[in-house]
Amino acid sequence: MLIVDDSRVQRRILAAQLSRAGYRVIEAGSAEEALDLCRDRMPAIIISDWTMPGLSGLELCQLIRQQQAEDYVYFILLTSRAEATEVAAGLDAGADDFLTKPIAGDELRARIASGRRLLRMQGELQEKNRLLLETLGKLQTVHERLDRDLKEARKLQQGLVRERQRSFGRSEVNLLLRPCGHVGGDLVGFFPINARRIGLYAIDVSGHGIASALMTARLAGYLSGNAPGLNVAIQTNEAGSYDPVLPSDVAAELNQILLDDMRGDTYFTMAYADVDLITGRVALVQAGHPHPVVLRAGGAVESLGAGGLPIGLIPDAEYHTVSTVLRPGDRLILVSDGITEVVDASGTMLDDRGFADLLSAIDEAPGAAFAEALVKRLSQINGGEFADDVSAVLFDFERSGAALRSQIPDRARTAALPAHSAVAMQPVSR
Fold first, then answer.
1. Domain-embedded: residue 103
2. What digits encode the pLDDT tens for the residues 48-58?
3. Are the C-beta atoms of 222 and 257 separated by less than 8 Å?
4. Which end of the chain has fewer CB atoms within 10 angstroms, the N or the C?
5. Does residue 393 contact residue 334 with C-beta atoms inside 8 Å?
6. How many CA atoms lie within 13 A of 28 on its CB side?
7. 334: DSSP letter
8. What is the CATH number of the domain that holds 116?
9. Which residues contact 69 (CB under 8 A, 6 or more apart)?
10. Residues forming a β-bridge with 424
11. Co-location of 71 and 207 in the same domain
């Protein structure tokens, strides 16, 4: 504690009172001497006379406030003037308290005790701020590490993508994706079943982040064309060749696997279709996913599917296979709810009629261009801000555009088909 007064007697009186109260006191006979002492070590409390030769106590307070470092200094001014204007001037200069001469010992000790309480609270606040900054620094380090891990995870997840487009004779598959984040749980893809059949799937895992991404990676293994023996949609017949599993049985098997083996709160929706590349016959199952649609060659839009329960919620859930036949020029579309639930600026959701009109309007665009046109139209509706992932499987059956682009002769339709392709993306909120 520092006492500043040009009166040696006044300093001694105050020092004696404070020393008896247990305080360590140093003295300065002028503001200039006080500043020199403060350069070596800033005291916690300064008690200064207002009127002194040279620099006044008010000017000393202002200089202390200007050079004050990390720790706060509690400044008390001693004055024989208690007018409101004087008090206001002192507060403006940065003084914390005032004592009017002559000074009573009890009042002096009480004012100092009050100052010490404020300094203690200020010290506690500084310590909490230090801990907070330290914690924020650690969190920032963790966040940067997690961000790096997520970027690496996205690269690994994108490794599921073998191709986004593949021609099968005069037919063609295109995979559409518009991710919203690093990693997640949308998965779209295709795989060969046998020489004339392919499987198409669109999956949306519940939740967000790494857990959903890991689920998509596992599901990709259950629907892989690289390991037909592990693909739940493929079975081996007596001749040793491959046949399709009924789509409803595929959904039921995945439901059982999720409930028995994975044992978590995660579930997913799915649309899965088994397509005959020769006849155009389609068998499909809809498990909580948006309705698949067929965009007919003439522009008509037909909704398919029976609704169905999501996979992984209810034991022994029943799923139903529905079928249709594609004619040359038709397009089968499996979409995520990031498409069907897009909203415009007023908050109005794209309904079934609006979606059908949108598809009809861009029907003439060939496969990959159709996907780009779909994203562009959706961006026009919602202003370019997608709140969810956009993913879809687009299958063009015997379309003239696909035939012109394809270099594969018709006889290739009876040859072995290419391996599985998949796209994994960010999950939607459930």
1. yes
2. 998 899 999 99
3. yes
4. C
5. yes
6. 24
7. E
8. 3.40.50.2300
9. 42
10. 187
11. no
